[in-house]
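User: Can you model how iron/sulfur cluster sits in this protein?
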Amino acid sequence: MSESLPDARLLARYATPAPRYTSYPTAPHFRPDFPAARWEALLEATNTAPAPPLSLYLHLPFCRHLCFYCGCTKIVTAHREQADDYVAHLGRELELLTARLDPGRPLVQLHLGGGTPTFLRARAQETLLGMLGRSFATVSPEDADYGLEADPRDIAPGTLARFHAFGFRRLSLGVQDLDPEVQAAIHRIQPEALTRRVIDEARGLGYRSVNIDLIVGLPHQNIRRFEKTLETVLDWRPERIALFHYAHLPDLFPAQRAIDPRALPESAEKYLLQARAIEKLTEAGYVHIGLDHFALPGDELVRALETGTLQRNFQGYSTRKGTTLLGAGMSAIADLGTAYGQNEKDLERWGAALHAGRLPLARGLELDPDDRVRRRVIMELMCAFTVGTPPLAERGRVPFWEYFATEREALAPLVNDGLVEIRPEAIRVTEIGRFFVRHVARVFDARDRSARDEPSAPRYSRVL
Ligand code: SF4
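Assistant: Here's the modeled complex, given as structure tokens:
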């Protein structure tokens, strides 16, 4: 195990809640009174030459079963016909979006998330793919990054082939843990052989990147059990592995009330689970990317890290930095570069807006110049664990530490605790600091600082 383990004092100080920084400013700061007309104008402004290529996140919220740990926006139902209506509404949303975009802009990235995208019946899948093909200038599979999330327990025959024929080459499978007692406690019984079969089918069809989601911090997990899960997953040799942290927030996510908090590992044990997993995965040849992703050297995610095109977004870490990210479906978030916008999270409100011919925007935020410079610093820290400190080109070449004088003071305790080094030309997060990088990034989060003492201050998950 790694020599550099944080001690109890560090864990007590930093294994505390902090934002995950899938955006900056973070979603709790998006404003419900953001004007729809301004959003539409900003969307149209993305067509200005040179218009960035497009990336699309589509949210498909339906699931057949409820996993107790889940914090996603989802609808658990046995009625698959409910999804047919949803797909019809998505078609309307894509029409409203594409009416404001130059039709020549290539769709270089597409991600179907949820929920369970494979919940859709064959006809609904065909309808959805037909709509996507008609709405966007799709690109060849060699140039595209099209991926979907799937639940191995809910993939009807023909599904993977259908998405592959459209151009999908990435498949992301939820697994979380393979131990039977852990699976029972989270209400997700998923036999190992079933997942293996799905991986084999995907590879046989020509999917070039399979991702496995695992979670650290689930009830009844311990090192011995989790090592066994890791060994099986390594045997599958997926191109990517995402190792998420379970955030127990039962007040926010009612399904989590079914999880016995006494069965959850403590922060120190969670840390050991994570450290052991990092060690095992890197020994097995995976490159550790950002906070919680791992990929084999040939995978596009590793190339993105090497070429500086890795980005952090609402799906975690992703390639194709610099695209205009569109969001469709309930709760989906778009990033226009100049502004963020999130759709209605409620199915009825989302559908009603579309029925009325309006984009279903619920809240948004236009970035000011200060947000932009902070976003760059925070995202570089979250992706590369280092950020250069030359004068800020975005702010009239003001010296970095003159602009961030308050932050320099706030970083001092983190430097003393060995989480960060301040070098003449850069800030560097240390090996131990990597576990707590959300706190390092938070130092540069001016919006969080000004909201922290308000009664309505956002609540975040613990770092460990
Ligand atoms: S974890 Fe995935 S499959 Fe389980 S309820 Fe949540 S969205 Fe559905």
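A couple of observations from the model: Residues 29-365 form a domain with the pyruvate-formate lyase- activating enzyme fold (CATH 3.80.30.20). Residues 161 and 205 are 7 Å apart (CA to CA).
User: Helpful, thanks.
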